[in-house]
Design goal:
- This protein is α/β, with parallel strands linked by helices.
- The protein has 2 domains: 117 residues, Urease, subunit C, domain 1 (Roll); 303 residues, TIM Barrel.
- 37% of the residues lie in helices and 22% in strands.
- The strands form 2 sheets. Strands 1, 2, 3, 4, 5, 14, 15 and 16 form an 8-stranded mixed sheet that branches. Strands 6-7-8-9-10-11-12-13 form an 8-stranded parallel sheet.
- The structure holds zinc ion (ZN).
- The site of zinc ion (ZN) has 5 residues, from loops.
Length: 436
């Protein structure tokens, strides 16, 4: 192949521009050089005297998907995900029993990375609990952020040895991609580590990601039993201690007081959130990765996606892991969100478009990879050529967007990461001559 490849399609969905019937992008050096109508892109190249090869796909071309919450390490724990549970505690017990047995985390994570690429994913927020799984994104060439998970530290143990151990584990994560820390949840760590973890990350310019609003008891108890919070003078030891003392403080307000939230942080789930909690997330510039199929397996309530949409919150989409979800196909979660939003009364016609945006640019923004030299999550000049080709009729652009958002699972025909074909279906290979 020559230096420039034109990828033309029945419909190009750039996300940051209107869908382009008969559109194309030009790619060179792993980056997007032009985006527009196919004839215009070709004329631009011709005007510059640049030779190119063309790959034509009659279906849809859109940015690669960004899976904004997962644990690739748990890919081999699908037996847990096939169960049905009555809530977070119930699921946790089943998870712990299998986790304790141990597995080949590295090969499980690699298998998960492969499934994600086959589902059109090009960047991932991947939480790692055991070091053997820490190279999954790096080895698969996936973009995104690898987060080292931190949990179960008491304040004194953290001060004595925890902080140093976590800093060493963070610094040992293979890069690229970017790295960060994931304080597991507000209730599984004392306040001291929760307060210090963001500093460790921010000193290094990394990212923060935590589970928030996944367990029902995290929700603010109204009316407050005691108010105001006593921590002008002293930090409560932990969220559980605060609750035990009779305060109804919600987990979101708790982590906010500790300085955890911010534009360099995103949360997963956000199911049990009051409107005040959601406003706090917006005020801090913190996005939420919604994982509706995982919530259903665990037996949680549905996430308030209609409220997030109406209120203008930053939303992304995650599959979570196979230990709580039927597949790593992000478009299946998009379809679930589409159904839930309609059931919750969201009637605007922009639903499909906003959900496809959440699964691409919304995820990239949540992970902080939507700007800078290696920006991704949308098709625009200079962005990485992270691409997903999908099998869908393109006669009508509105219908195509609606179909992908409501029934997009299993439709990915090819995935390119930084311009390199990493997955091609037999149909895509036969149609285009491109094989991964
Ligand atoms: Zn999770």
């Amino acid at each position: 192949m020559t230096g420039v490849t034109v990828y033309s399609a029945g419909l190009v969905i750039p996300i940051t521009a209107p869908p382009i019937p008969g559109g194309a992008i030009a790619v060179a050096g792993g980056r997007i050089r032009h985006v527009g109508d196919r004839a215009w892109v070709i004329a631009e190249l011709a005007a510059r005297g640049e030779a190119f090869d063309e790959v034509h796909w009659p279906g849809v071309l859109m940015p690669g998907l960004v899976n904004a919450h997962s644990h690739l390490q748990y890919t081999g724990m699908a037996e847990v995900g096939r169960g049905g549970y009555a809530g977070f505690g119930d699921w946790s017990a089943a998870f712990d029993a299998v986790y304790a047995g141990g597995r080949d985390w590295r090969s499980d994570a690699a298998a998960g990375a492969r499934m994600m690429i086959e589902a059109g994913t090009t960047a991932v927020a991947d939480i790692v609990t055991d070091a053997e799984a820490g190279g999954a994104l790096h080895e698969a060439g996936l973009g995104g952020i690898t987060y080292w998970e931190v949990m179960s530290w008491t304040g004194p143990a953290w001060a004595a040895t925890g902080r140093a151990q976590v800093e060493a584990a963070l610094d040992a994560l293979p890069s690229p991609p970017g790295t960060g820390l994931s304080p597991h949840a507000p209730y599984s760590l004392d306040a001291l580590p929760l307060q210090e973890i963001p500093d460790i990350v921010r000193e290094r310019g990394g990212r923060i990601h935590l589970h928030l609003g996944e367990a029902a008891f995290e929700r603010e108890e109204l009316p407050p039993l005691r108010d105001p919070l006593p921590w002008h003078d002293s930090l409560p030891g932990s969220f559980r201690e605060l609750r035990g003392a009779g305060y109804g403080t919600g987990a979101t307000e708790f982590v906010d007081r500790l300085g955890v939230l911010g534009p360099d942080c995103h949360i997963a789930h956000g199911v049990y959130m009051t409107s005040r909690d959601r406003a706090l997330l917006r005020a801090r510039g913190t996005s939420v990765a919604l994982c509706p199929r995982s919530n259903a397996v665990i037996g949680l309530d549905e996430p308030p996606v209609a409220a997030y949409l109406v209120e203008g919150s930053g939303i992304a989409v995650g599959t979570d892991s196979l230990s709580s979800s039927p597949s790593l196909d992000l478009l299946a979660d998009v379809a679930a969100l589409h159904r839930i939003a309609r059931a919750q009364g969201y009637t605007d016609r922009d639903l499909a478009e906003r959900l496809l945006r959440a699964a691409t640019l919304g995820g990239a923004h949540a992970l902080g990879i939507d700007t800078g030299p290696d920006r991704t999550g949308y098709l625009a000049v200079g962005a990485l050529a992270d691409l997903a080709f999908l099998d869908a009729p393109t006669v009508d652009a509105v219908d195509a967007v609606e179909l992908l958002a409501s029934d997009g699972a299993g439709r990915v025909a090819a995935t390119l990461i930084a311009g390199v074909a990493r997955h091609t279906s037999p149909t895509f290979a036969d149609t285009t001559g491109v094989r991964a």
